[in-house]
Amino acid sequence: MEEVIKCKYGCTSTLSRLDLKIVDNILLNIYHHLQYSYSQVGDYKSGAEYAAAFLLHDPLNANMLTNKKYLMQEKNVPEKWFQPPQREVEHMQRLDTLAELMQYLHTEYVSQHSLGKKRQKQLAELEGFLGGNIKVNATAADLGGTERFVADGFATPEQCSHLINMCQKVGVAGYTRGVGDPPVHFSEREAIFSLGINQSQHLVEEGKLASPLLSMYLELSENTRRYTQMYFNLHELYFDFTHLVCRTALDERSSRDDLSHPVHADNCAIQKDGTCHKTSSSYTHRAYSGLLYLNDNFEGGEFFFTDNHKHEQSSVKPKCGRLVAFNAGDYHGVKAVRSGRRCALAVWFTLDPHHSEQSRADARDMLDKLHNHNLVHDEL
Ligand SMILES: O=C(O)CCC(=O)C(=O)O
Ligand SMILES: [Fe+2]
Description:
The chain contains twelve helices and 17 strands. The protein is an alpha+beta fold and 380 residues long. The strands form four sheets. Strands 3, 4, 5, 6, 7, 11, 12, 15 and 17 form a nine-stranded antiparallel beta sheet that branches. It has a four-stranded antiparallel beta sheet with strand order 8-16-13-14, with no helix packed on it. The chain has a two-stranded antiparallel ribbon with strand order 1-2. It is globular. 2-oxoglutaric acid binds at residues 261, 266, 291, 303, 332, 334, 344, 346. Its EC number is 1.14.11.7.
């Protein structure tokens, strides 16, 4: 059953493969072309229909909203023509149901059906993880949700300062949501720098970053993946994206009431009515998220969970080695960093192997090659 659901859910990405490469947003590209072509030949009704199909996936897309405005103002197309084809509406509903089913299979169903030996073995592994040094200090119940935890012991002070220095020295300005996305800034009152695996690999190749630092980066993030997979009793969790991110207060006035990172979910776009839509630009394949914090010598910067009305449910104070992990659909944000610099290693996981983060495998290959040629220097 699980395989069938996975296959159906992954259908769009499987069919998006051209020459073995995934073409992002293939469906949206097709709707865009259809909207354009129908409008060009004067069939505005069909043009409007495909504009609506596009906007169903990506309601805030600026280009398509401009096209819609053009059709309404210049071609007198009435608003009621902007109805997506019924089959598209049903397709979106099916995707939501399949996503819920997958989630159910991986959590309740699996945990109810594997309480036997396998689960016991996993619990023992959790206990002994990293030499028994991990300590869970908040569970889902403490944090006001269903799939959340906070645990300490994932990095030593030395490892934390190495990663912070790395992000500080070679990170790039802005926050990157995923591979190929333009960097963004959330608050004018903070500088934000981030560093992905891909960039780190290039820096090692150019001799600007010591290779053991990249190994450490990979290893610490891999530990968060293994632990999260076991904790949530999941079949297999894959990385989707990894980055180091530091936020530095520029404006040290304590009266700030903005957020360092506004309330959001990591796999859907929160709407005004509090619901969350799986729009095409919202990384819908992300299933779980994690933040491994690297320091606590700053003011503010608490991570917090909220309910669907953006009311705070619980908060987490970052410190070196502390991991907070949660269902990627949970609403959360970061309070203003009022002074100092706050750094974290952020990880996003998927249950879909098609999305497995390629740059991690590439970085590992490169490190193995260096190792085989005895080119690794021990100093960091
Ligand atoms: O840094 C944090 O504590 C959370 C950041 C976050 O939610 C994100 O990057 O999506
Ligand atoms: Fe997030």
